[in-house]
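Proteins fold reproducibly. Take a tokenised chain:

. . .
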Amino acid sequence: MPTARRTQRERRDQAEAALLTAAAELVVEQGVRSLTLARVGERAGYSRGIVTHHFGGKQALVERLARATQAGFVPGLDDLPPGLDRLLRLIDGYLGELGRIGVFNQAFLLLWAEAATQPELAPIFRERDAAFRADLREDVEAGIADGSIDAGVDAGEVATAVVGQLRGIALQRLLDPESTDTEALRRSVTRHWRRALGR
């Protein structure tokens, strides 16, 4: 039985997914400094020209990789209204996902850490962290408004502390997986924030 021909969009999406996967694998294996368009194309089975066609240059490739790796890290949150419950589910889900961290998320964390010393990466990850903090701030503000979070809490400070804690645990998990019990942390960290924020 003949197979249906893929559309141009399907071929483009498949190529982009393969290139992003190759880029993530290379970042994990060799670090961001060794990432080149030629290596990404070779790893994915395409020419460097295809990588250039899709992304233009290394900076755009890294930016797209950062966005792709962070999107949807914690599933099941989109249908929840902002507030304490969504905030706690995000914390619990984030730590749970660290227990089965894949190559995309490893690449994101390595790129995030590199951004502290790589000026070309810093704007990308400042923007990603700002968006993360904004989401968390929205949850805290909604919790204050509905009375589930203490009105004396500073939403911006909580957002910064949560991002710092989650990213720090993630980096520890990446550096030494055996020393970081993500299942135990899910319970203790979520319990901590429930107590710290609750009325």
Observations:
- The mean pLDDT is 89.
- The chain has two domains: 8-66, 72-197.
- The first helix runs from residue 8 to 30.
